[in-house]
Design goal:
By secondary structure, this protein is of the alpha/beta class. It has one domain: 3-Layer(aba) Sandwich (Rossmann fold), CATH 3.40.50.150. The protein has six helices and nine strands; from the N terminus they run ααβαβαββαβββαββ. The strands form two sheets. The chain has a seven-stranded mixed β-sheet with strand order 3-2-1-4-5-9-8. Strands 6-7 form a two-stranded antiparallel sheet. The termini are far apart. The mean pLDDT is about 95.
Length: about 200
């Protein structure tokens, strides 16, 4: 088990899913953006989805080809337990997104809320982008949310990289056409405010 994986396993084993700072009762922005670019037959991967309720919201909305990837299997186990029998309709992958063996040209939507900003090493960011290029279909959509310029400098004891919309999109480059961006102020379970920037683009 890598140090990175050990860290996140520890986080999810020591805190409830509704106690981590990124907890959302409903992933409203993510769900709205996904609905805006994909119908219910779309192949969707939620990167770093872990214990997030986005998968519940997508199932409730009729989406049926869902994959959730997270480094911490304990986080995925939380979602599987919450969903009960419905968990069988979802593919679960416990792996590091920068190294996972993902299928080529498979996904219509790549969604990531709060993984990319943890990639402080440029080589990790490059591998992440390579994974997106490999696994998202041409014409597929990529939705990535990261801490904005006024967001925190650390999260869960780890350094993060903060992004303006232009700098976030620049990490992905020419193969991705920017469709839009928006800012969201997230309220943590302890009442703190965190600025998130969402960028959404289409893969050439």
């Amino acid at each position: 088990m890598s140090d990175r994986q050990q860290h996140w396993e520890s986080v999810y084993r020591s805190k409830g899913a509704d106690e981590v700072s990124w907890f959302q009762t409903h992933a409203a922005s993510s769900l709205r953006l996904i609905k805006g670019c994909a119908d219910s037959s779309a192949q969707i991967i939620d990167v770093g989805g872990g214990a997030s309720v986005l998968v519940d919201d997508l199932l409730d909305a009729g989406y049926r080809n869902l994959t959730v990837l997270d480094l911490a299997d304990s986080a995925l186990a939380t979602s599987r337990a919450r969903l009960g029998a419905r968990a069988q309709a979802v593919q679960w992958i416990a792996d590091d997104v920068t190294r996972a063996d993902l299928p080529a040209a498979h996904y219509d939507v790549w969604h990531d809320r709060a993984v990319f900003h943890f990639l402080t090493d440029p080589s990790d960011r490059a591998r992440y982008v390579e994974q997106v290029l490999k696994s998202v279909k041409p014409g597929g959509h990529v939705i990535v949310a990261a801490f904005g310029p006024d967001g925190p400098l650390q999260c869960s004891g780890l350094d993060v990289v903060r992004y303006a919309p232009e700098s976030l999109h620049a990490q992905f480059g020419a193969p991705f056409r920017l469709l839009g961006h928006e800012t969201e102020i997230h309220h943590t379970p302890t009442g703190k405010e965190q600025e998130f920037v969402y960028c959404y683009c289409v893969r050439a």
